[in-house]
């Protein structure tokens, strides 16, 4: 195991906080940088939390130096697809320009390893029923493009320096820490499972189904929902890979099968034991009909074995967290 520190940007956010927790549990030295705009200080269960921005060059350089960082895990980003369509420069500013700044600081400080939160949105509308890592890259929203530009910056920097990286392309992340210590608290959340669980506990009047005329079996969008605990574990496996001298790589993070919006809502109803108030609505801008991972490469290259590939377990953990938020 390397002795260097690990900087987690966005470590107070939904996925980042699960990774910080898992790193802390394995005894790793971790420091979080988060501007706390969408993150929560109380979600950071291990290591120091520094409030600030990845675009702040002096701050980032100081953290890398003071914490003797040799690995950066970079989550800090805006992530809402429809917002990226209506406000693209916000996404290019934070997701692309700030990542460039962070990478420059990493280069100057001699950081060795970089793990990047990328997204399935880089594929746009895949030509086949699965998106594989070598499928065409054709994002249909600024969110996907902003992340793809960062992947390419990483690729080019790695070719020109000693930095090695793993870019993880997340499919649809859902669920919470199975022990209920942390979860997804994002205000004005847009993610289907979160929205549905909020409706289930009475925090929302209803759930809208965005699009019922897609070319899918029940007409609603199909996604590959991955439990946040398995996704967090993929980061730890990526870290092991880099520390063992493994080469740079780009990997899908999904289970390789999908559920429709209606199937997810039915599962929430089943777990909650009550019908959900649902309304059908037009398609949402920027949404592909189907997005499912070709999910073999991550198993082969990282030896990643998912433990929570079960929609009921995903929904149960999300609903438990939502109930906890409601009960204060
Ligand atoms: C999510 C991620 C995005 C990632 C993508 C990969 C966030 C905020 N979004 O976006 O970063 O690139 O997965 O696939 O982390 N839906 C409804 N009603 C709702 C909400 C959603 O019908 O109230 C539908 C959507 O139209 C879509 C599906 O549910 O068909 C999933 O949507 P959502 O949970 O918002 O995730 P993505 O937009 O896929």
UniProtKB/TrEMBL annotation:
E.C. number(s) listed in UniProt: 5.1.3.2
Gene encoding the protein: galE
GO biological process terms, semicolon-separated: galactose catabolic process via UDP-galactose, Leloir pathway
UniProt keyword terms in alphabetical order: Carbohydrate metabolism, Isomerase, NAD
CDD domains: UDP_G4E_1_SDR_e
Listed GO MF terms: UDP-glucose 4-epimerase activity
Name of the molecule in the record: UDP-glucose 4-epimerase
InterPro entries: Epimerase_deHydtase, NAD(P)-bd_dom_sf, UDP_G4E
Lineage: Bacteria, Pseudomonadati, Pseudomonadota, Gammaproteobacteria, Chromatiales
One protein family per Pfam: Epimerase
Classification via Gene3D superfamilies: NAD(P)-binding Rossmann-like Domain, UDP-galactose 4-epimerase, domain 1
Catalytic activity: UDP-alpha-D-glucose = UDP-alpha-D-galactose
